[in-house]
Amino acid sequence: MSVIAPETMETVYSYPQSLTEKPTHYCPGCTHGIAHRLVAEALDELGLRERTVMVAPVGCSVFAYAYFNTDACEAAHGRAPAMATGIKRVDPDNIVVTYQGDGDLAAIGSADIMHVAARGDNITTIFVNNAIYGMTGGQMAPTTLPGQKTTSSPMGRNVDMTGMPIRMSEVLATLPGSAYIVRRSLHDVKHIRKAKKAILTALKVQQAGLGFSMVELLSSCPTNWGIQPVDALQWVEEHMVPYFPLGDYKIADGVADL
Amino acid sequence: MSKELLKGNVAIAEAALRAGLQAYFGYPITPQTELLEHLSKRMIELDRVFLQAESEVAAINMVYGAACTGVRVMSSSSSPGVSLMQEGLSYIAGSELPCVIVDIMRGGPGLGNILPSQGDYFQVTRSAGHGDYRPIVLAPASVQEAIDFTVLAFDLADKYRHLVLVVADGLIGLMMEPCELPPFQPVRTTRPDWALTGADERERNVITSIYLKGEEMEGYNIKTQERLATIRATEQRWVEHLTDDCDLLIVGYGTAGRIAYTAIDEARSKGLRVGLLRPQTLYPFPEQRVAELAEQVERLLVVEMNAGQMLEDVKLAVAGRAPVDFFGRMGGMVPMPDEIVSAIDESFAKMAQPA
């Protein structure tokens, strides 16, 4: 699939090699599709597709293995980092990427992600944070904002009962094995471009063997938030960004030289 | 090769290494820790993958990942740790990946104790995690057999693309015995065509255990059951002792089966014709031979270090052909030969009673 400029016959847009042409199952307005495309473009641009193994999570992106045109596997809920460790330790020259949501990474898989970072395993994690459990129909996640209504916090998240949302990038940045930990957002084009750049850097960090890299992507879930897609993008900017500030949380020595 | 005096856990570790183990992931737990400790040194010496995980949950998922790359991979643990691995074992089975897990069983339930037990027979033979399948289960009764079965486990895992458990009680893990290690097999340099090694000049490979459509999931189940039918038909393993003329057949595995030899000698010296069938595979259970022998003997006696778990498989195989008695010790207590002799006496007393 590609778009060709009629005047020059130059290809101005084409489907990334690193994506299959299978239509995704994501809801209208969901930003998973954008995140997938950014990862695929980055793999293409760095010429990594042929030696990449993607590890899909449990959650909305459970079928990521069907969309990335690379070798891929499907982990148990939360265990993608451990599985990635097993793959990477055997084949350190291959590029291993986990793609995980906030329930998968920040709740059930919190120990796994902590220790993959603590060990400084040379893997890259794409962390899609949309502040809710999507696949199971909109329950409260560890990243759900105070007062946010979900199907398991119908009166709004009560932080007296459940505590405050976890800021995973800030937590993981404290670990010496983390080489590159940044938070970006997918709510508008400008931020999408910044996210793409971060994903490229994260993969280069892995190529250079500098340690654990993670790009957290603030994302929208119009279906489970119960609002229109455009409003959902605005909600990311107005409600998520203030609690989950965008920025670079860990830039280890050597990353700037990549 | 000459004989060496080796502890069971160390012998298993060294045997795995010699069978071409390429990656090991584990977590310390008594009574299997020496296995992990031995590999922490030897795997690094040989430039292979060793990693101590943060939990058994992580260890089994690292095994899952490494198994996806098509190398020989193993973990080891003991009962509570194997409980934590159940989810991963199920995923590995659902993904049809070869791998070997060693379970050095201890007393339970709960935290239990660190004494030798066979309390996890159901856990290992019934499915090991959720879902509708069975792993292959090998049960050594000596350090030598633990070595031999570790090598066999890798071969069976590769042959069937199936999960293989080597299951021994803590006594086998901690006991030192003279034994002979196998020669070093070269580490495999090629990978199977299904392995996740990067889709370079080939179609991409995908490994999952997800089949959303009922028909597809059932297709997996049918394929697995067909494979298990082959395994049942070809891989039943056991040894027999004095079964030609016995009136009472003891069925026992691992340490319990081994202690039965001493008890049988004593019973024979009293003129009681007792024999032994010692299963070496718990799955597939040697059901055909047990059924045949049930036709010949008056009675059976199952001896286990639990409340009677293999007993159910024996009864299924016997299918009413003869009465089946049971003697077991629990909680990490190991039966003494004279206790088994008493159980033998009781079985003979029942034979003497009119039906």
Walk me through the structure.
The complex is a heterodimer of chains A (258) and B (355). Chain A is of the alpha/beta class and 258 residues long. Chain A has a single domain, classed as Thiamin diphosphate (ThDP)-binding fold, Pyr/PP domains (Rossmann fold, 3-Layer(aba) Sandwich). In chain A, 37% of the residues lie in helices and 19% in strands. Chain A is built from 10 helices and 9 strands. In chain A, helix 8 links the parallel strand 7 and strand 8 (212-218). In chain A, helix 4 (102-108) packs across helix 5. The longest helix of chain A has 20 residues, at 189-208. Chain B has 2 domains: 4-234, 3-Layer(aba) Sandwich (Rossmann fold); 239-352, Rossmann fold. A 7-stranded mixed β-sheet of chain B has the order 3-2-4-5-7-6-13, sandwiched between helices. A 5-stranded mixed β-sheet of chain B has the order 10-12-11-14-15, sandwiched between helices. In chain B, strand 11, helix 10 (254-269) and strand 12 form a beta-alpha-beta unit. The mean pLDDT of chain B is 97. Chain B contains 13 helices and 15 strands. With 355 residues, chain B is α/β, with parallel strands linked by helices. Chain B has helices at residues 8-18, 33-45, 56-68, 79-84, 86-94, 121-126, 143-160, 170-174, 214-234, 254-269, 287-296, 310-318, 337-352, and strands at 4-7, 23-26, 49-52, 73-77, 99-105, 136-138, 163-169, 176-179, 206-207, 238-241, 248-251, 274-279, 281-283, 299-304, 324-328. Chain A binds chain B through residues 49-53, 55-56, 62, 65-66, 69-76, 79, 82-91, 94, 111-112, 114-115, and chain B through 22-23, 25, 49, 51, 53-55, 57-59, 61-69, 71, 73, 87-88, 91, 95, 196-201, 204-210. Strand 4 of chain A pairs parallel with strand 9 of chain B, so a sheet runs across the interface.
